[in-house]
Automatic annotation (TrEMBL):
The active site is at residues 81, 97. Coiled coil: none annotated. SUPFAM superfamilies: L,D-transpeptidase catalytic domain-like. It comes from the Bacteria. GO terms for biological process: cell wall organization; peptidoglycan-protein cross-linking; regulation of cell shape. This is L,D-TPase catalytic domain-containing protein. Belongs to the YkuD family. The lineage of its organism: Bacteria, Bacillati, Bacillota, Clostridia, Peptostreptococcales. Pathway: Cell wall biogenesis; peptidoglycan biosynthesis. It comes from Geosporobacter ferrireducens.
Length: 121
């Protein structure tokens, strides 16, 4: 049986854009701006890859430095995740991943399904 919440969530179309210059992640719902979040991106030696990807897996409390949630992208070893170092948000410090505050990544995780398009600029 499909719960009403699940039906409404799947009836929505989400997509994500990450701007590595402004270090923001923007969530769109049904092609309308929905919310923006501050993020950390890859440092110069390990930059966040540019391109269009999909969320291919999700994990709750993945452990280590990945904070409260992990959303793996179709680019191997790259994901959107929380952090155990919140002061890193807004900086270019990661090994290519997109870091978010744990409260923000939890909110995003609960909204977007596997298959969501992520465009990194």
């Amino acid at each position: 049986m499909i719960k009403v919440y699940d039906y409404l969530r799947t009836a929505q179309t989400y997509r994500i854009t990450v701007n590595t210059t402004s270090r923001t992640l923007t969530l769109y719902r049904n092609d309308q701006w929905f919310k923006s979040y501050p993020v950390a991106v890859g440092k110069t030696s390990t930059p966040t890859p540019k391109g269009t990807f999909k969320i291919v897996n999700k994990s709750v409390n993945p452990g280590g430095p990945f904070g409260a949630r992990w959303m793996g992208l179709s680019k191997p070893h790259i994901g959107i995740h929380g952090t155990n170092n919140p002061s890193s948000i807004g900086n270019a410090v990661s090994h290519g991943c997109i870091r978010m505050h744990n409260k923000d990544v939890t909110e995003l995780y609960n909204l977007v399904p596997i298959g969501t398009i992520v465009k990194i600029l």
